[in-house]
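Q: I have two molecules that I believe assemble together. Could you output structure tokens for the complex as a whole instead of separate predictions?
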Amino acid sequence: MTITLTTDGPAEDRMPEMKQGLVGVATPRPDGPLKVTGRAVYAAEDLPEDCAFGVLVRAPAPGTITLANADELAAFDGVLSVLQDPAMIRRTAQGGAGKAPRQGPGTADFAGQAIALIVAESFEAARHAARTARVIVTGDPGLIDPAAANPEGEPKAQGDLDSAMREAEHTVDVTYRTPSMASAAMEPHAAVAWWQGENVTVRSSLQMLKDNRAELADCLGIPQDRVRLLAPFVGGGFGSKLGIAPEAVAAALAARRLGRPVCVVQERRQVFELVNRRSESHQRIRLAADAGGRLLGLGHEALVSNLPGEDHIEPVTQASRFAYAAPHRVVGERVARVSLPTAGSVRAPGEAIGVTAFECAMDELASATGIDPITLRLRNIPDRHPQNGKPFSSHRLEQALTEGAERFGWAGRNPAPRQRREGEWWIGTGVAAAFRVNTLTEAEARITLTSEGALVETDMTDIGTGTYAILTQIAGEALGLPVDLVTVRLGDTDLPPGSGSGGSFGAATTGNAVWLAALDLRQQLASRLGCEEGDLSLQDGEARVANMRRPLVALLNEGSLTGHGHIRGGEALKQVRQATYGAHFAEVAVSDVTGEVRVRRMLGSFAAGRILNPLTARSQCHGGMTWGIGMALTEGMVLDRRDGHVVNRDLAEYHVPVNADVPPLTVHFVDERDPWAGPLMVKGIGELAICGAGAAVLNAIHHACGVRVREWPATPDRVLVGLA
Amino acid sequence: MKPFDYYRAADLTEAAATHQPGSVFIAGGTNLVDLMKLQVMTPDRVIDIARLGLDRIEDDGDGLRIGALVSNSDLAADPRVRKRWPVLSRALLAGASGQLRNKATTGGNLLQRTRCPYFQDLATPCNKRTPGSGCAAMGGELRNHAVLGTSAHCLALNPGDMAVALRALDAVVEFRDAQGIAHAHPIAGFHLPPGTTPDVETVLPPGALITSVALPAPKGDRQIYRKVRDRASYAFALVSVAAVLRLERGRIVHAALAFGGLGTVPWRDPAVDALLTGEAPSMVLFDKAADLLLHPAQPREGTAFKLPLTRRLLRAVLEEATQ
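A: Yes, here they are, computed for all two components at once.
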């Protein structure tokens, strides 16, 4: 049996019927002890016997490539092979691509691209040969500067924004610039591949196994059923591991050629250039408001970049299409085609930088109108989608703002900048709204009930988000089993295809598949008891119907039962606008001497449907808010203006926030059930907390010292130019 | 990493005897090993000096003698240093991370190489890495680069914090040359500006080994180390100041100001110290000091911000130190 559900409308909430009391309760990760004791096996650990090591060779610049000393390198001590296979890929696949056309080693689209693999008996020997490779680049590198390109695309216009800007009482017309950003996951991209006959197994650090299997099969030129991918533990993804990457393909090719396992790990410096970056952006934002701060028009036009042929265009204005009401609108992106590292999904593509810039502009409007920034936002919440008139599935921005404001202590704030000072430090507070689109994809899951408990299986990944924990809770809740009787197996394409982790849809999509599989089992148990499934109560390993209590084990007849669940997004994604909402609050101190900014406290208030596990959800939000601090203050890839290579390609020079940059973070969840989001009424939380977080910090900088920093990150030099 | 021979020296004599052209000494290895992995440094022979016993901090008259192998953590935590040379303790704690400070040594820290990204990148020319190949930083992306002491061949910044404090404290670097003869060289002039030979970074002759750093009695009781950086920890200085001052009857009678983040060497300008000495503190005076300090600076796109930042920082530090 399989219960299949397509979300075509609002769902019924059956959670109140369930008795185990696991969902919504802070539950530690079952995989936590494995991770903190080093027993969780990541991609490049616990290698198979006789494993060889590969190191990718980088192209120093874009152009036509010749590896001039391949024969010399092949003769190095310990070197087994210098691989330049036409099936290699040079660009990391985009999320959801499902294909990876062979790209070959003859050219480099950008500086740093991998154009060969050196395989050796030891990692050190392979690395030495890779470093000694003489790569000759000829030909035209192509365009490096996005501003010099003739961009493609045209923002969508409604009404007449130019007239609205001329006639409005208050206007803002500003440009924000954001740099390219890196995912900088802790675990570098890595793969170990081994062949058994015509079948290949690859253990790799990946987010979306179902798609990744198709991608790997595509470039290897073999059917998908000969490819098995394993990713039981993933040390952070943030979008960077959505698509198959060069090291996994190269490892599989090398293992086939050598007839032995091959492990390829991207060095940290390679991760910064081979992994898809978040595009830089130039965002022109126009706001036209009446005397009361009601928006008559809004414009959000973004210029982003990518390689020729890439279909990922950073959707900077995604939330601006529905965030605020305004009759006159110009919203959309243009893309410049350049020879820079591939741009792709990085945590909350679009809203992460788009909402942040827009929310800074809203703060500028609050200053221009003299209206409190929260009031200003409340006055502009739309009743329906402003562009297409569709209803919202659920809209909790007002609650997020007001409940957050109360907890942060916003009331009574003097809106004028430069009012509070402690020694050399200006103190200020800022607020920003958070918006993120919500979606549900497709997933299957299987639960096997035996005398040992329940085994939940799907090829879903846990990229550090807490998937093991929430799937345990969902299955245990519906089946009436305590967490220690539920085992979750993930990250293996031999298991039913889950959604993968990306776009914050993992918990809702795969969670609902597990939920449906559990409902399937409940029906089977009910039929064995001769009752309706709705009359069945499962708790602590017992089935209860009316006055009868039976241990679940007794219903198995010394065998097992298997339930299948299958969910996919349907009309519910088209008939309404589904989104998550939130509000960020920050207090900062700005040194009047140096322009250094210290975030003193931060609070996030988030509405994302039912919160399955406050512990792991809060962890996700801490991560997002920390990214917001990084976006506002420290992070940015530096690309050399001459050849586009990434200049700061390690964690010493690419500045993610360190502990000393991150103050106590408070997270508040707004109570919400969104019936359009599927039977669990769960929406994505992972990405919401980054959207707009940096704007709260940047707006607080302005409130503290009167300086608007419109080119990020707000490093001391950029704050200093505005200080008297 | 290029294959190399590894020796562990039992004593100074063996360390010297084992050294030959193409050899390097390794202590904490916090910088050397990174550069070897990148093949920016490709020694044939690595001589481990960790067992030489140079890991003590000893009283030396009214000063201290710091063994070359004393870790940054231990030096920063030494009660004598914290009490009488707090600028050194502060500078050390402003550098790197706890883990790195546990490994990094006093001698090694003086010899750390620039973090200019073009120096670390084999794909770009660098006169420091490959003499005569050119300088990719010029015309490239600048931030952690020098504005003082640069030449037409190199813009590389001398990184780090400890040496800046030592410069303000008039420390003396003690070393044995390859023949085993002991030398002492003031920290002033120990590091060399790039000139036409950016690959030559100190006065140490080939095969020489730093054995200790002598710290004379502090000449000022007002000591401040202040570092401005792009994040709150684990980042190199955009600008840093080590100030050692003494005041008598409302006048500055000793001034030693050293700067990080500005120069191709740990920067100290005797004329700036002289300008301040004998004067009553005032904002006008501090501004004059900044004018004098920054007069020879050669800012470029990407580093120009260092000038106003230095001026503001210097004023604030001097104001605090003379209160």
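A: One point stands out. Chain A has three domains: 3-40+442-568, 52-141+185-274, 388-440+570-724.
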